[in-house]
Model the fold of this input.
Amino acid sequence: MSQIIEVKVPDIGDFDSVPVIELFVKVGDRIKVDDAIVTLESDKATMDVPSTVDGIVKEVLVSLGAKVGEGALLIKVETGGAAAAAPSQAAQAAAPTAAPAPAAAPPAAAPAVGGGVVEVKVPDIGDFSDVPVIDLFFKVGDTIKVDDAIATLESDKATMDVPSTVAGTVMEVLVQLGSKVSEGAVLIKVETAASAPASAPQAAAPAPVTAAAPVAAAPVAAPAALAPALAAGAKVHASPSVRAYARELGVDLNKVPATGPKNRIVKEDLTRYVKGVMSGAVAGPAAAAPGGVVGGGVLDLLPWPKVDFAKFGEIEVKPLSRIKKISGQNLSRNWVMIPAVTYHEDADITDIEAFRVLLNKENEKGGGTKLTMLAFLMKACVKGLQKFPEFNASLDGDNLVLKKYFNIGFAADTPNGLVVPVVKNVDKKSVFELAQESGDLAKQARDGKLKPADMSGACFTISSLGGIGGTYFAPIVNAPEVAILGVNKSAMKPVWDGKAFVPRLILPLSLTADHRVIDGALATRFNVYIAQLLADFRRVAL
Ligand code: CAO
Done:
């Protein structure tokens, strides 16, 4: 049976006349729990008001520019009955009013008067505590203006930008992506304009804000095939939901012309930009930054098939973990943007496996580190990266950045999804040290204890499914890296030695490489070399 439910403005703190600066729904739209209905902007904060119900929008009771306060009716939604075909009906909520979004109390910072270092803190965000930072827009040395978004916080009920109340130079950033914060947590320290050093850029007038270069930021987690997330949209004006949408599409908001009030990028600007890129009218991000960005938009322009699964049988709806959501976006981008080819090779690891088993037996007595195949693979890969420097590189516009350090990421399967811890300076470590360190990192990954620094800085990734099985697979390149080595389970195979078939332990290798940097001949040379090293590990010492 269908029911009409009103969705109202939740408790937004002391503010009672806040303008609607974006409106995301129209009559007839299907809406899901947590979809943003409007963006409200007070002079202290910008927030999206999410829906708490699934259904079809029957009436929209606000318009752009309307001023609303707590309890104002935003939309009427038909739930159940005719609206039952809504995709996430299983998640329907019965609550008649919107759940409280974080209140938009002023950040607890002193105004920028007379100069000095000012702490900008998380304002009153209602009942929520330990809310993750999902976007961070400034780094030390940046010039910040009043109202510039410092960070985006996302609770399970709402997403909000915390703006700066001061102008000046950022002296310290006290949070990072993934940090969990509550009211009063210091986000940044700002040297206000009056006392900023002469060499520091001076704070500009509050608005309008002009687009600035994107800032690279470490991802919350860098699951396999993930790029370190660019803080796309850094310093542009856009609501949390538009930022989220841009992240989903992989669009750098700095490239999107804004038409909204106060130079704000609205959802239509984003759609127009993506359509422009798709039609060729606008230079796509791929052309601008081959190593980086995206056209995941290709996928989003086609409607995703909507199926009422419940019509066919019992279902259960389970939200994706945060890691899965982030890795999904990155995987989509990398899959769509990188012209990748996978090359297979077989490595004869009979001798190295015998050596590993022998060393482990000797070691067992002393209780030493257990040597793993992964540690040998890391060592062999570094040798490969040294011989073929194009593999130890990243694209940056028309340049190839060749790295002189050798950090290797490895995909680790955890209960919450895939993450990629990074072992640093693999060239300087012994196989024992690599086994120990990768083992420790894998444990931390499974315990959810990896820090962003543990997952950044990789040059190349190994994805080992060897402990599980499989023969070959096609891993997705972990941008901005240019290649990834997939490994499956070794198996005894008959190999012709010129006179007879002999049993040898064969390890299947699957190397995926970015064709913009690595041609097939080079990829195959790399694979053959890795196989040679594994077949006779003495070559690593050469
Ligand atoms: N062939 C045959 N056996 C192998 C092997 C291989 N290539 N690699 C490992 N093994 C065996 C080991 O010998 C060991 O057996 P024993 O316990 O009898 O000694 C067992 O598998 C476990 O090996 P290990 O301790 O070296 O650990 P691991 O192979 O599981 O590797 C890690 C660790 C973190 C890479 C792994 O746990 C993991 O998470 N892998 C999944 C990665 C993944 O999901 N990749 C896909 C990404 S794309 O979707």
